[in-house]
Task: structure prediction
Amino acid sequence: MLPSALALFALVLGGCAGLRCPRIDPSGERLFIWPRDQVTPVAASANPTVPPAFTDPVFPPAPVASASTPVGGLVPPLPQDRLTITPGRVLAPVGSEVILKAGLCTRENFLLTDSKVEWLVARDDAGEFVELGGRGWCKDPWLPWNRPQKIDNQYATGYTARVPLTITRGTAASTDDVQIEPGEAWASVTSPVEGVSRITAVAPEIEEWANRRATATIYWVDVQWTFPPTTISAGGAQVLTTTVLRQTDGTPVEGWLVRYEVADGGGSLRGDQSGQVVEVPTDANGRASIDVTPTGSAGSTTRINTQIVRPPRFGGTDTPRLEIASGSTTINWTDGGGDYVPPPDDLGTPLPPSTFPGGNSTAPIQPPTPAPARIGPRLEVQVFDTEPQEIRVGGSPRFEVVLRNTGDANASGIIVRNDFDPGLTHISDGRGENVIQTDPGKVADIGPGDSRSLFLTFGVQKAGRLCQNVRVSYNSPNAAMTNHCINVPQLQAQAQGQLQVSKQAPRLRNVGEIATFTLSIRNVGNAPLTNIEVVDTFDPELQPQPGDAELRNGSLFWRIQRLEVGGTWRRDVNCQCLAAKLEACGIVSVTAETGTLTPAVVTTERACTEIRQALPDVTPPVTPAPGGNVLPGVVPPTGGAGGTTSGGLLMEILSFANPVLAGTQTSFQIVIRNNTNTPDQQVQLRVLFPAELTPDVTAIRNEASVRAQFSNGELLFEPINTLRPGERIGFVIPCNVLQAGSRTVTAELISRNMPQSIQQTKEIEIIGR
Result:
């Protein structure tokens, strides 16, 4: 009871004061520093990794008017129950966890324990909940109904705590601990990507809607940085460089700002702009550089404050300007032992001429002018587009490389090397290594203050971001370098129609029967087809029936004005089989305009059928057996060689399922029998399958153990040497069912005693899925 009483006493005395906004620790050593904590100062860190680094100037606290002071002579409103959240705004690195605290404060200025708090993350924002606080006597409640509940990553419910507790983050150090007071609910939020998290806490117990919710904003950044050294000794102008990279993959960050400011001492800054404060954007390598020029004497110092800034609305987001980190560099100016001499234009006014007594005029006395410090040659290189209009694939952009000597001595021995990305080509790059370099002596010397231009013309072979890295070496230990990139847009494919033509024919027909050829034309492009002409020509053994076609020189002709994208035109052409032929074919030729400047496309397709002489119908009309799918046997005509027989070869075809489903497998059983009193020899079975059925040769079973070969729709078994009188042999043929349709399977049987084959056909219906 004693700990509970002490906790309750602390709650009554403390009220809602514990929800004051925390100060931000710029070192990154701690996430929150509460006003009542006494924390020793910590040194600034260049790249804190845990927890996030914050700075006060990012979100300065807004002035809060006293509740007891009327504004504009109005009486302040009566106190009401309200929900508060802290911190209100947070800057955090991606991958870290930010802890938010909320409390339900009554109008009497007390925090309520065991109160439900709902947490929400805006659906289109980055960020998700990791862990929440519940009610109970420790961090993890004992009973299930006292535990927090995470409905999903963007919505969760928790409770305000009953007793104080400490969130340690699982580390031994106490500097990153977060204290949770009675009456405070807490939630931790993380995000693996850059963006903004807008978190809303809601207390359903509060009746006033305007007071029952509070909102916090977290700005997630993916960055790490390298500041210039903290101390530098230099005798002349000094270049300071700050590098900004992404923390997750180390790639450069382009477009951020680095703010340089002369804090104290003599010195001036020179970049794209001059002054005591200069903001330099980072380049494609993530670097931002500034020249610092001394303005004082030798031995003086200049302190430069550096600050990394994420620009407002960077990357198309709605984030404000964010100041991420800050550092400082002190430059000690030396000149190797002598006094530092400013530039000639900063020497002041010379003394006036003087005369000796007696009126004799002499030469004016001038102060000694020390020789200016020598800095030697210093080249700067820049690349410009001579044709600023948009560059496309296949173009030939021309660039100007400008070399400028900002030093005080001649730059000689100049060699320019250009390493360019694949996708750019240059006539001088004979080996295809994407490198060009000037020969020694080709570029003339450049005097102080002079400049020289070189012009390069490249070919563009592909789209994307294509860069040049230019490096200039000369009579100086330092080389001049720059990077220049162009963005080449992707070529948009021109919409055009595309033909897909198919022509199908039956596998086998007899003379006098009808063979149906099916034509199909489909537009598989992305633009309509127009002025389509279809010409269908057949062999003399086939006599087509025109239907809705026009006859031109014995061929069928159709004209289609327009075929939309995805549209299909189909015709069935019935042909009378006039004479026997192994391959009686029809050829269709389709011409269409695609809607582009290219010529009309022409596509042809060919389909053939086998035409055989009609055989006499030797099948007597027999009623099929009930419940079966058996076709009657075929009896050859009597009076053949060898005299009259009491029977002949019989053949039956069975299918295990009819109809069958496309995409499955079915089987056919064929039974042959010698219905004579004498043996028969060289008995051979031949089965013709349509394109929709494909036999599985490896799975065929037969009682004679003869092998089979399948080619072009024909399954041919090896001859059976001898078929004894009354002997019966069965063949089981598994088949793969490919597509829907109504098709026919034909079986033929031939032997030495019956050289004229007998046939049986089986109609099978294939149903699509």
